[in-house]
Amino acid sequence: MSYQTEKLKQEKVIRDPVHSHIYIQDQIIMDLINTTEFQRLRRIHQLGTTSLTFPGAEHTRFSHSLGVYEIVRRICNHFQRNYPTQNGGQDGLWDDHDRLVAECAGLLHDIGHGTYSHTFEHIFHTNHEEITQAIITSKETEVNQVLRQMGPNFPNQVASVINKTYPNQQVVQMISSQCDADRMDYLLRDSYFTGAQYGNFDLDRILQVMRPYEHGICFKKSGLHAIEYYIVSRYQMYLQVYFHPTSRSMEVILAHLLNRARLIAQHPEQYPEEFQPGLLQPFLTEQFDITRDLTQYLQLDDGVLTTSFSGWRTFPDPILADLSTRFLDRKPFKSAQFTEETKPLLAHLRQLVDAVGFDSTYYTATDNSYNQPYDVYDPTDQHPNAQIELMEKDGSLIELSQASLLVQTITGRDVGDSRFFFPKEMFQPEAAGLFAETATQFQSYIQNDHIIQPKESLHD
Amino acid sequence: MSYQTEKLKQEKVIRDPVHSHIYIQDQIIMDLINTTEFQRLRRIHQLGTTSLTFPGAEHTRFSHSLGVYEIVRRICNHFQRNYPTQNGGQDGLWDDHDRLVAECAGLLHDIGHGTYSHTFEHIFHTNHEEITQAIITSKETEVNQVLRQMGPNFPNQVASVINKTYPNQQVVQMISSQCDADRMDYLLRDSYFTGAQYGNFDLDRILQVMRPYEHGICFKKSGLHAIEYYIVSRYQMYLQVYFHPTSRSMEVILAHLLNRARLIAQHPEQYPEEFQPGLLQPFLTEQFDITRDLTQYLQLDDGVLTTSFSGWRTFPDPILADLSTRFLDRKPFKSAQFTEETKPLLAHLRQLVDAVGFDSTYYTATDNSYNQPYDVYDPTDQHPNAQIELMEKDGSLIELSQASLLVQTITGRDVGDSRFFFPKEMFQPEAAGLFAETATQFQSYIQNDHIIQPKESLHD
Amino acid sequence: MSYQTEKLKQEKVIRDPVHSHIYIQDQIIMDLINTTEFQRLRRIHQLGTTSLTFPGAEHTRFSHSLGVYEIVRRICNHFQRNYPTQNGGQDGLWDDHDRLVAECAGLLHDIGHGTYSHTFEHIFHTNHEEITQAIITSKETEVNQVLRQMGPNFPNQVASVINKTYPNQQVVQMISSQCDADRMDYLLRDSYFTGAQYGNFDLDRILQVMRPYEHGICFKKSGLHAIEYYIVSRYQMYLQVYFHPTSRSMEVILAHLLNRARLIAQHPEQYPEEFQPGLLQPFLTEQFDITRDLTQYLQLDDGVLTTSFSGWRTFPDPILADLSTRFLDRKPFKSAQFTEETKPLLAHLRQLVDAVGFDSTYYTATDNSYNQPYDVYDPTDQHPNAQIELMEKDGSLIELSQASLLVQTITGRDVGDSRFFFPKEMFQPEAAGLFAETATQFQSYIQNDHIIQPKESLHD
Amino acid sequence: MSYQTEKLKQEKVIRDPVHSHIYIQDQIIMDLINTTEFQRLRRIHQLGTTSLTFPGAEHTRFSHSLGVYEIVRRICNHFQRNYPTQNGGQDGLWDDHDRLVAECAGLLHDIGHGTYSHTFEHIFHTNHEEITQAIITSKETEVNQVLRQMGPNFPNQVASVINKTYPNQQVVQMISSQCDADRMDYLLRDSYFTGAQYGNFDLDRILQVMRPYEHGICFKKSGLHAIEYYIVSRYQMYLQVYFHPTSRSMEVILAHLLNRARLIAQHPEQYPEEFQPGLLQPFLTEQFDITRDLTQYLQLDDGVLTTSFSGWRTFPDPILADLSTRFLDRKPFKSAQFTEETKPLLAHLRQLVDAVGFDSTYYTATDNSYNQPYDVYDPTDQHPNAQIELMEKDGSLIELSQASLLVQTITGRDVGDSRFFFPKEMFQPEAAGLFAETATQFQSYIQNDHIIQPKESLHD
């Protein structure tokens, strides 16, 4: 189905350091950007606690969303120039009538993301994908009102692209597949803003070799190495940026802090002072209900959280106050790797932490980067068409990991590690006062090869 | 005077996209970075409302401060390698005993900056330079405690570099002069994060031609063009980034919003609902007193402000609620240039704005970019040694604007413009309902050459 | 007139570090690139002797020509997307029928350039513009044969774009005007390969604000600063790269060397050994005749010259042998600035050079960078439409220097200097042996302010 | 042994686009750069025929050699700052007395390289490593004369670094090991000038984690991923740049051309015209003798070869003339992959080529990129200390491929392919005239899966 779009009288451009400029050509795109729900993304960091490790990484989901839109726009241009359909897409080529739904879906794919999503979702059982759908389809939102101007069914179509049920899989795969506009933008962007050079693959070249086919999007075989390089870049970014122990440690503190706040919010009578959860109130005291709580959810942002923490620094619960301070002043826990074999030893370490006077429920954690919300290329994925397919000159297809040893190596492998987090003070016996001896014991336990982890595994 | 510094056992590096890495070699620098006052700079944008125009510009005073430190460190290295004194600096060459005070001053030069400084200072009469001095010299701060470890007088010495009274003017000019580490870092950094390419001068070359002399720092004449280019870069950044009408418009809204909040905070009884100023309370209701209010000041950050605004969206004062929404959802005022001649016409425009139902006190403003807190090179500056001096091969000096026509051109000139700000609705008669006619009248008044401003001057 | 172009079945791309990729879409463009005349440009440096100052600057007229084509292609795309004519260009908008002639002219605009053009033309009275016309229009060349496939008149049309007589001035100005594809490519390219950062203006932005109008090409006023920055970049590149004293000094040696070779070629009988001018023969012994000598001209390239010089190192004419060695081994002359006032003193300096035993005809020179073949923006240019015009929103035009003080400053000014070149040995009395005293006298004459030039003016 | 170096009064800098600037601090380095043998490297491309595929790759061995020197200089600085020996290197730390020998060796490591080395050495049995040694140690060269100023044994010491026998393996490994200054510079440089982004690893980070130890140079384990990325970059550069079929095809033509010229030079009487081999004469007619022919060797450069080819275009040997034209006008042979299994079929293909009238000796070739002169990391290398060793925090070592799966994958693998080269005309039956049928047969033979190579393997 084709939508009548109102073109802007004059193309507008937004300056973007990653793509140089974002080109806005349709009134509806401009209007979506100007909605309150979309503007809210300016106040949500793209990488959560990562800026506490890489100080440049202050970029937001707002600029990322613009970047995804821009890549989608460029893919559509390339498809329309080189692979235009003659029969409404029956020939497996590109039907430009789908352009607008693709561009809107690209722009809005992260609209449901909230503050520190990974931790927040884990603690409060929100789900950013559900919320994205809700924002697009609920009549109350500005986003929905803008989309409805294209027709009553348009919001559902955009939403269906994001949940992958849209009939034209070319559109779906532009937004969600192993080499989609989302991943390509975030690698380039995270690389640019962190200053890590590892995410800097060759976008121009990948766009050149991308092509539509009957089952979605594939890549010309001649582009194999460009894609290989993109996969390696992604792998390096996981290892060096996304799984960085310090960022994970700050997430651990954040999670404990929110859990403690929930406990207090549910038992405020136990404290001599009024507890002020601010805009977090509904999330701390009740089970999240997407229909009822969407408005409250949309009021949250990173500043709301840190403002609450700032107030809690002096609250008369020592754990809440201390964890708030650690988060705001960036005092990460230390961490050590553990393995399946050494895992049983953690119980003793927790006891020592307790013995020094830190409640191990709030002052230790284990964390497994395998569970991080970043997907390494996985050929066993249940969406087979989300794999990367290469097209030979004769039209036959080959799955990427069949053609590339490097990709195969990365694919068959776990990336990341398991870590045990604990207060730095456990390594500063002189700071532990009366408990110096226990701390010393803890430290030797950690550092001794035969007991827990060796050498490089320790991280500040 | 020389300070015994504790070197880190192992150099630490912080990844930075502008300088590639920041090198930390002294324990005291690490400790200063870890103070609560310094970490707070992570929550204060370097460019205030500019990210509302350039979405990449989310960088903070934290990374800028690290960058200034890094440039100071590199200058000291260069001076010590090429111009080491033989007699404690009597020969006009570099005395490396001053390195640590220089590095600390570079790191801390912005420590007193608060949220949206320019507007905030204007409305609440705070002064970031005074506060910087206070943070460094007050015994209560963590920064002061770290500095005192070097000796009881060390904090004062660092503070005196920042207020320019430190005896060694080479150190002073590293931090504050026309071509200092502060300006060099912010041009490169603002250029990098906005994506505007104009601030991208040749730092390596400038560091090569920089040299100490008896009155401070000068530049080898052979570096003339590199410095010329730096000055032109700065000029372009003012025109294209710092004075951008949209950012200024958002500052206008912020100022009106804070003024309105103050009025309400001082008359809360007039509202049916409790007004919640949050951490802004002391600033809204009392005159700022630096001794008494430093702690409160240090609790503020950009998130605190936007969190308050978020709460105010639904407060039963329509002006406060509307301005809060405009700020959070980025609904800038429109603006038109005016001149001394057309200025008298503004009164009538304000009447028309009032007539449509917008209180012109809160919905219009004039703003003069000449007053912006950015200094264009000014040879009439009362600190003559803050000018840029070039040294010929024979040791004689020539002031930069005497040697460069380009600089002279820029120097003798006002940069920027005067603008009148008003709601966009005044240009959308169809949205003005009953007042459509008044809006039409307003629009024609603005757009007609003979009355107010011509052509290009209008900005969304 | 419209040409039927054969599109390539599949777009071809050539990797280019400046534009990322060059996109080839037409068979004729591919065929032109594959001609012998065009491939020859691979063996001619873009910047002549500049690589002797900036070692990275080894780039050739081949890649520059591809770059100019690519920028023309992008301009045509932008024009066709945003300003397509409705009536064959009568409305002042873009007629895409002219695209192919524009692209060919962009590709071929430098096809007549020869080895070290500036010096070569000066000595041998060749003219690269005439030769460009000849290559395009002579039936003997492969270029002409390719062009003729489009129609018998096509070569003339392409040639007429280059000599500026093509009716559609939009096409002409794409290739030759103050802000054309030629200048834009060479600034970016020379900046990239020298490593000088000064030529790095914002091409994307300039292409956005460029637009066709009835008299050619102008720029939207909102792009003023981008163009200002481009002009300043060009100015800086003249000062820092194109007019560099060392490169000019090497050109002086080259000119003297070719002159000496001509003298010898015309009097070979005076030497005990056969003089081998190689492929330079016809140029040394006869007046260049474009009709007769085109084939010989096309055999020359930079390698042919240096190969001849290599052979001449041992020829029994001491001046030829020495100058050949100086050129190949990069032994530049030293130079000092002079002014109109000090110019009369040069005669005495030449006498001293002679006195030390260097023939001042071949071992000194004066050179005036004002005469360099690079044009600084000049509003008095007799082609008024080659100026840069800015278009206001209401369609009125303003000439750039009227709108920009920076440009005005640069425009009204001579750029560059006058230099006197002489052997380095004149500054090494110890190397002058018997003539040490004369050398000392020379040196003091040069270095003494009151006599000839002061301070910074001296260059190795 | 320590050498007294004369420091330059003032550091000199050479602009370099890869490292920003090259810093020259010693008179001897300046003097070496100014020798005739070193300046000659300006006339030898770093990448031979690669610029015929990537037009930007015109960079020379001159700038590469400067780059290697600069990296060595930075490594020495880093070692001296962080790992200075206390006992002449007995402690496995860095002895800065070795700095000068390291810097000279870095600068001169490629001084023996000639024009199109790979092909030239293959055809004429020269050996650039032997020649490097000869240039450094023969009393006749300017390089040797400069080196001897440091002491009579200094040239031998520099030479011994290059042939890996210098006692301090730290110095040796700076110049020749799996991650040395040579490889690091060429990857960055080749990446920069080709525009391929694949060689762009993180030099700063690698220099940070590099450290001296008793057996040479190793890397801190924490730098694992930076090194992994460097290895993958190198792998990608091999695949995408160094082994590019078009460049190899042009090398094939060059080799056949030189072979043909040798045949003619040895039988000049068979031709009606005098054959002019120019400076190639001694190489064509006699076995190369390094003692006798060094002077002649040093006269060769890329321009000398192309100048000869230019003259040969019209020589009355059709094969020589045609191959010369193909090389100068860049008319590569086409190529197809073959395998061990399909190899026997090549004989028939050669017969078809002969049948069409191309002498298959000069118009076909097989080429195996495994034999290319680029080394992929190989742990079975007989120089075990040339492997990359990682140092854990406790001082223990682990070989890189043991710690990195990616490296292991690359290591255990052949990179590259085997290709059969033949004239493009074999695929243009219409151009084959009478032999159209044979050409058609050839083409079907190549393109049919079951006979020779499939799909993607064909390259223009």
UniProtKB/TrEMBL annotation, chains A, B, C, D:
It holds the Pfam family HD_assoc_2. InterPro entries: dGTPase-like, HD/PDEase_dom, HD_assoc_2, HD_domain. This is HD domain-containing protein. Residues 57-196 form the HD/PDEase domain. Transmembrane segments: none annotated.
